[in-house]
Design a protein that fits this description.
- The chain is mainly alpha-helical.
- It is 63% helix and 0% strand.
- It has nine helices and no strands.
- The radius of gyration is 16 Å and the shape is globular.
- The two termini are 19 Å apart.
Length: 182
């Protein structure tokens, strides 16, 4: 049972309509999350902008997926894990990596594991990470920009994960085959 409205283009506030039209054009459907976010045109715009900025960050498709799914799984978001599973497949991310993230297993290579580890630490410790954790992240081949890019991805995921928890957003039909629970 949802506790927030899932808007259509027709029912959305006027300032959200063009954004929902853009979402429908981009995805070939209107994602339920975007319909929920539409109640606040500003939050919908922020989410869409953060998504675009994060996809333009220093991370490749595998790394974007590691950050997104690590946060989604940690937050227990039953909407975002299936959605990002489909997105990862569309980005040609290896199924072994996708499944390891969904299953909270070790990742197939040390560099991606270091990214997952620091992302989890940032989430769990609310940004208070140790020098040892940063040193391990840097030793894996990452730098200061990637630390900040994790925070950018986290900003996007807080909007979607928290909204989905409050709204009990139903998984969109194309993503149902990737259903997930913690």
């Amino acid at each position: 049972m949802t506790s927030l409205t899932i808007h259509t283009i027709e029912s959305a506030p006027q300032d959200s309509k063009p954004q929902l039209e853009a979402s429908e054009k981009a995805f070939g459907m209107l994602p339920n999350l975007h319909g929920v976010l539409a109640t606040s045109p500003q939050l919908l715009a922020a989410y869409r902008e953060l998504h675009d900025l994060f996809t333009q960050s220093s991370f490749n498709a595998d790394e974007l997926t590691v950050v997104w799914q690590t946060i989604n799984v940690e937050h227990g978001c039953t909407y975002c894990v299936p959605a990002h599973t489909a997105i990862a497949h569309s980005m040609n991310v290896d199924a072994e990596l996708i499944n390891a993230l969904r299953d909270e297993a070790d990742l197939p290579n040390a560099k991606l594991q270091a990214l997952k580890d620091l992302t989890l630490s940032i989430v769990r410790n609310r940004g208070r990470v140790s020098e040892e954790e940063l040193s391990a992240f840097y030793a894996a081949g990452y730098g200061e920009q990637q630390v900040l890019d994790i925070i950018l991805g986290l900003s996007q995921k807080v909007i979607s994960n928290y909204t989905n928890h409050i709204a009990s957003t139903p998984v969109d039909a194309p993503f149902e085959k990737f259903a997930w629970s913690k």
